[in-house]
Amino acid sequence: MKNLVLLGGGYGNMRVMQRLLPSALPEEYTITLIDRIPFQGLKTEYYALAAGTESDKDIRLEFPKDQRLNQTFGEITAIDLDQQIVSVGDSQVDYDELIIGLGCEDKYHNVPGADVYTYSIQTITQARKTYQAIADLPAGSTVGIVGAGLSGIELASELRESRADLKIKLFDRGERILPAFPEKLSKYVKKWFDKHQVEVIPKSNIVKVEPGKLYNNDDTHDVDICVWTAGIQPVEIVRSLPVEFGEGSRVRVNQYHQIPTHPNVYVVGDCALLPHAPSAQLAEVQAEQIVDILKLQWAGQPLPDKMPDLKLQGFIGSLGDKEGFAYLMDRTVTGRIARIMKSGVLWLYKYHNG
C-alpha cells in the first residue's frame, strides 16, 4: 500500500480529506493524518475561546472516519525529506506523498520579553491558557493586546463583551486600523472601539515587555496581562527544513504547491509562500488545487502548463456578538449583516465537515 501523509489537521488538510474520502482515493492508497490533538481546532474562533464567549467544544470538529484513514497523534519531531520519513516521538511514518499543513506560531520580532511575558491564541492549548489567565483577573485590571490585525480586533471586541469590568488597550502599529483596506472600514471599527471604551493606541512600536509592563516607543504602559497578536511565522520544525524560504520564513513552492527539490512534498496554508496573506480561506483554496494535482499524477496525466490563480472572496470579522465588518468582492460591509455572514460561514463549515 502507498501512503499519503498529512501533517496537521487544519483547514487545508481537512479539505484534502473531504475531497479524497471516501471514494476519490486510489485503491492502493491509505491516508495517514498526524496531529498533536485528536480533532480540528477552528483557529478562526480561538479569539472567542480566549475571551470566554465560546466553549471549547464549540470550536472543534472531529476528524473524518474512514477505514483507509489512519490517525497518529503526537508531536512531530523530525521530517526527513530525502528518506521520506516523518518521526513522531519514537515512532516513524513512511510516506509516498506528503502534505505539510502545520500552521504557524507567534513571531515576536526580537522584542525582549515578548516570548516570555505574553499570552497567545495561536493554538487551542494557548487560547485555553489565555482564557484562564483573563478569567482570573479581578475587576479593573488592564489587558494589553499587541497587534490590531483581524485577530487582535476580534479578541479586543469579544473580550469587551465578555468582561465589561476590564480596561482594554489595543496597540496598533499603523496610523489607522486595517490600513490596507478602505478607510470606511477602518472608521467603522474605530468608532465601535470608541463607543465600547477600548483604547486604541496607533503608531505603536513595542520595544520591550516585562511582567506588568509594555514599553511602547518612549511610553510605559502598566498592564496586568498582555496578549500577543502581532505577527506569525511557520512553526519551528518547518523553518528548520533544508528548503528555500521567502518572506516571513515561508516555504517557497512552485505553481503546483510542491517543494521544487522534492515534488512529492506539498505545503498548504500558513507555511507556504503565496501571493496572499495567510488565512483559512486561502488554505482551503490551495488544498483544492493540491487535490487536483494529486489526481492527475495518480492517473498518469500531465500537469497543466499554468495553474489557475488562487482566488479569494475577501474576509469577514466580528465585533462582538451583534456587529461585524467585511471586505468582499471589493466592497465594504459593516454592521449586523456582516456579523450574520460570519456566523453563517462558520455554520456552513461545521455542517460540511460533520
Automatic annotation (TrEMBL):
The reaction(s) annotated as catalysed by this protein in its Swiss-Prot or TrEMBL entry are: a quinone + NADH + H(+) = a quinol + NAD(+)
**Gene3D superfamilies xrefs:** 3.50.50.100
- Residues in FAD/NAD(P)-binding domain copies: 3-280
Look up the EC number in the record and give it: 1.6.5.9
Q: Which cofactor does it need?
A: FAD
Q: Which regions span the lipid bilayer?
A: none
Task: Spell out the molecular function terms from Gene Ontology.
Answer: NADH dehydrogenase (quinone) (non-electrogenic) activity
Alphabetized, the UniProt keywords read:
FAD, Flavoprotein, Oxidoreductase
Name the top EC class: oxidoreductase
Recorded family membership: Belongs to the NADH dehydrogenase family.
Q: What is this protein called?
A: Type II NADH:quinone oxidoreductase
